[in-house]
């Protein structure tokens, strides 16, 4: 079988090529291999067991939720989440006013908060941004948001942050699950599992509270079809299907908890990391920052930005896309598994193989993006001066399983970035800030500080 596989380097027995990947920047090692072996290559990471399902996704998540689900459960839940997002106004089709209002409410709170700080002092935007974006996602998923500093909210953020860190550390377990018995992996594993239980207990409390509210609405004969958050949506859908097998198969308690965690996690960290990179690149590039501000002045004059302005502000969209290109938030991509034998470029990808959509290699390919390390938003502007999306731009990946929150992400990134830039001039405290980033599940910038001067 190995002879029919795409070309690739030989690795060591048992562990394959794993020891040769740079754990701090695996996307760079993998991209070097693509240069040597071509656009489709294979890598032996573990010759003793299949690659998919992964240990972390299936051994820990047990195939629940949406990110790790497969087959009928995935199809059902994907449709359900898709309908919810459309219902809330986070989709390309249908009215978007409610979602727009929600995003604007929280970004305005962000601006108010920054203004209360001593703006001569450099500020790390991480925490205030996380509060802002997290509050938007909290309202979508849980139907509520918490004040800055609220104990529960602080704990949720901590669990999320630590969870992401430990998933990164425990990465090799995907390929070599027996490593979990080694002391160095025991701690992250036990943290991950404890954190998961804690989070799920907390979710159950929120579900119970939402259930009480829903029952009250029912007794008052209120319309419960216009649900406004994922918990409510799930409770209503479960009730609709109460006399069918679906409750047991797709609408059980475990699935409920995992789904909430997936949408919360996938929605918050990705948008947060993108906007942190965006602010960093803009603060480093005075010319680009002033062009952005000129555009905002021309189009908005003094009013607040709205989603209708997206088309008239192509340079904003171009800067956001260039950020997503130059620092792929998920540089190695979210792996897919081959459900059947697949023919690709004359090679056979056998059923069960893990397919790694290596975003970094695509986005840093100098044939498509000359001087890839240069932050150059004009790559995303066509001859007519409009925003355009090249074929080789895949931050949300593509196909049937691509990111389900892409539209929501675009809405959030546009409204948050324009509101910030319209209000503040950004200066980087230290222009020597390292731009390589830290690899975990996402590639996040090293901590940096900005001076926000009110315009
Ligand atoms: C800049 C922001 C974002 C980026 C770069 C991003 C990127 C991605 C990527 C690369 C995938 C994997 C797609 C695949 O397997 O082919 C994904 C999946 C997913 N994303 Fe996003 N995402 C972002 C924002 C969001 C938001 C705001 C939400 C909230 C609803 C979200 C929810 C999800 C979910 C639930 C999945 C799993 C889909 C499935 O397996 O069917 N994402 N995202």
TrEMBL record:
The protein's UniProt keywords, in alphabetical order, are: Endoplasmic reticulum, Heme, Iron, Membrane, Metal-binding, Microsome, Monooxygenase, Oxidoreductase, Signal
The record gives the membrane topology as: Peripheral membrane protein
Q: Name one GO molecular function term.
A: heme binding
Which cofactor is recorded for it?
A: heme
Protein role: May be involved in the metabolism of insect hormones and in the breakdown of synthetic insecticides.
* Family affiliation: Belongs to the cytochrome P450 family.
Q: Which PANTHER family match?
A: CYTOCHROME P450 306A1, CYTOCHROME P450 508A4-RELATED
What this protein is called in its record is Cytochrome P450
């Amino acid at each position: 079988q190995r002879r029919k596989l795409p070309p690739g380097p030989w690795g060591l027995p048992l562990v394959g090529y794993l020891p040769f990947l740079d754990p701090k920047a695996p996307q760079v090692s993998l991209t070097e291999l693509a240069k040597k072996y071509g656009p489709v290559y294979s890598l032996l990471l573990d010759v003793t067991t299949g690659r998919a399902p992964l240990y972390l996704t299936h051994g820990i998540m047990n195939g629940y939720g949406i990110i790790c689900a497969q087959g009928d459960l995935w199809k059902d839940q994907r449709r359900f989440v898709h309908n919810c997002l459309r219902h809330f106004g986070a989709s390309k089709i249908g009215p978007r006013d409610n979602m727009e209002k929600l995003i604007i409410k929280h970004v305005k709170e962000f601006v108010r908060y920054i203004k209360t700080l001593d703006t001569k002092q450099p500020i790390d935007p991480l925490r205030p941004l996380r509060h802002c974006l997290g509050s938007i996602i909290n309202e979508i998923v849980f139907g509520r948001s918490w004040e800055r500093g609220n104990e529960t909210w602080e704990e949720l953020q901590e669990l999320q942050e630590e969870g992401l860190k430990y998933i990164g550390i425990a990465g090799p377990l995907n390929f070599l699950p027996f490593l979990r018995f080694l002391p160095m992996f025991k701690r992250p594993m036990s943290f991950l599992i404890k954190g998961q239980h804690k989070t799920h207990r907390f979710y159950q409390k929120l579900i119970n509270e939402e259930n009480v509210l829903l029952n009250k609405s029912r007794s008052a004969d209120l319309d419960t079809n216009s649900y406004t958050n994922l918990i409510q949506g799930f409770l209503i859908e479960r009730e609709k299907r109460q006399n069918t097998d679906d409750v047991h198969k797709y609408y059980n308690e475990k699935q409920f908890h995992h789904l909430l965690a997936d949408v919360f996690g996938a929605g918050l960290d990705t948008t947060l990391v993108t906007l942190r990179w965006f602010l960093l690149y803009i603060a480093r590039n005075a010319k680009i920052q002033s062009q952005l501000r000129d555009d905002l002045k021309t189009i908005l004059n003094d009013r607040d930005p709205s989603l209708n302005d997206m088309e008239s502000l192509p340079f904003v969209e171009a800067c956001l896309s260039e950020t997503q290109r130059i620092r792929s938030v998920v540089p190695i991509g979210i792996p897919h598994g081959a459900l059947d034998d697949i023919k690709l470029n004359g090679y056979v990808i056998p059923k069960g193989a893990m397919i790694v959509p290596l975003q970094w290699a695509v986005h840093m390919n100098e044939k498509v993006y000359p001087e890839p390390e240069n932050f150059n938003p004009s790559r995303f502007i066509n001859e007519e001066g409009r925003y355009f999306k090249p074929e080789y731009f895949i931050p949300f990946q593509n196909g049937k399983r691509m990111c389900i929150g892409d539209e929501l992400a675009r809405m959030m990134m546009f409204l948050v970035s324009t509101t910030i830039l319209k209000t503040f001039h950004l200066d980087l405290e230290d222009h020597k800030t390292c731009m390589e980033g830290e690899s975990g599940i996402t590639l996040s910038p090293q901590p940096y500080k900005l001076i926000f001067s009110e315009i």
